[in-house]
Specification:
8 strands; two-stranded antiparallel ribbon; about 375 residues; mainly alpha; globular; 13 helices
């Protein structure tokens, strides 16, 4: 089998990617658990508000403590990510800052301030404010965390599916023309619902795991059993909702980002009745040449499932990486994608030139400016 050795001499870009990826992975450990616990601790305190029993108050306090630890770690790692946008990817931030920076700024000024304000009331307001006000603070803390996820996912969705913007060749920057298109992008809405619903599953599993530990240790049996029941109901409902939102997400990605779907599935040569990869083993430092060898040595797939997810038809056609590069797919306009890539590369080349060089090379621009 023909092999291609990967270059292990990392550049500044490679190290920047590695650092950002490490920070993002560590940050993402805490984010979904924060969203999941926010819902559950709100439910537990609602039980206390309705019943007035000390048991539900102590239960809510217990899970709020775990939420607080997780929340603090998420904030700390998230701030590092914000700085890395400007340090690791300063050129990118300059190129798309007018668009990418808007949802991030709203997230900090609105959503984060909301949760950071009411989280203090939630932790230190017991016996100092009324039960109704404290319950409101708890739910607003969870709402703030959820709104933070919304604006972060709006920024991420725009990177995946740029809308509401135009490229200005005079300034060599992307400029926003419709905030509504950016904020209400189909990708943003789909990502938000699927992410938040999946976070409810994570929170439910975490609660069940902690309760199981206490039951094994013969401690806090009543708290554990009742908390486990609530988490099991929430997790079951969220799992059903996640299946629906996940199916829509796969269909949307196949429609708008065929290369992303093909890369995720290591699908180099597409076709009909394509299987969904279950197990694929490749050597990350010595990968096969997929232009000649179509599949890795070990590849186990569920027949027809990728076609079903991508087209809602088990016999539907799914293009592979090579198909898209050649522009020969019946579903997607690969040649237009190639033309767009060529224009982007030209823009990148111009952006690396000094302003004086661009001025001398663009007499038409000078005439328009004059």
């Amino acid at each position: 089998m023909t092999q291609m050795l990967l270059d292990t001499n990392w550049t500044t870009v490679d190290w920047s990617r590695a650092q950002f990826a490490l920070t993002a992975m560590y940050h993402w450990i805490f984010v979904p658990l924060t969203l999941g616990l926010a819902l559950l601790m709100g439910i537990f305190e609602t039980f206390y508000y309705r019943t007035g029993t000390a048991f539900w108050r102590e239960t809510a306090k217990f899970w709020q403590k775990l939420f607080g630890i997780n929340f603090a770690m998420g904030v700390a790692t998230g701030i590092i990510l914000e700085f890395e946008f400007g340090t690791n990817w300063s050129n990118y931030s300059w190129l798309v800052g007018d668009i990418f920076g808007a949802p991030l700024a709203i997230e900090a000024l609105v959503a984060f301030f909301l949760e950071s304000t009411f989280v203090g009331v939630m932790f230190f307001g017991w016996h100092k404010v009324s039960r109704g006000f404290h319950l409101t603070a708890t739910w607003l803390t969870g709402l703030g965390a959820t709104l933070s996820a919304w604006w972060i996912l709006v920024a991420n969705a725009w990177m995946q599916y740029p809308v509401g913007q135009v490229f200005n060749p005079d300034t060599m920057r992307n400029e926003m023309v419709s905030f509504a298109d950016v904020a209400l992008s189909p990708f943003a809405i789909d990502k938000f619902f699927h992410t938040v619903i999946s976070s409810w599953i994570i929170g439910s599993l975490f609660v069940i795991a902690v309760c199981s530990y206490y039951l094994l240790k013969q401690r806090n049996k009543t708290l554990s059993l009742k908390s486990m029941r609530v988490a099991a109901v929430v997790g079951t409902i969220a799992s059903l909702l996640a299946a629906h939102s996940g199916d829509h997400s796969a269909y949307l990605i196949a429609k708008t980002q065929p290369m992303k779907l093909a890369a995720m599935e290591a699908l180099y040569n597409g076709g009909k009745h394509v299987g969904l990869t279950a197990v694929a083993a490749v050597n990350p430092f010595c990968q096969p040449n997929y232009t000649e060898e179509p599949a890795p040595q070990l590849h186990i797939a569920m027949p027809g499932m990728l076609s079903l997810l991508a087209t809602h038809d088990a016999n539907g056609y799914v293009p592979g990486i090579n198909d898209i590069i050649r522009g020969a797919t019946p579903m997607h306009k690969g040649k237009q994608s190639q033309a767009s890539t060529a224009r982007l590369n030209k823009a990148k080349k111009l952006s690396r030139l000094s302003p004086t060089t661009v001025w001398r090379a663009k007499p038409a621009i000078r005439q328009r400016q004059i």
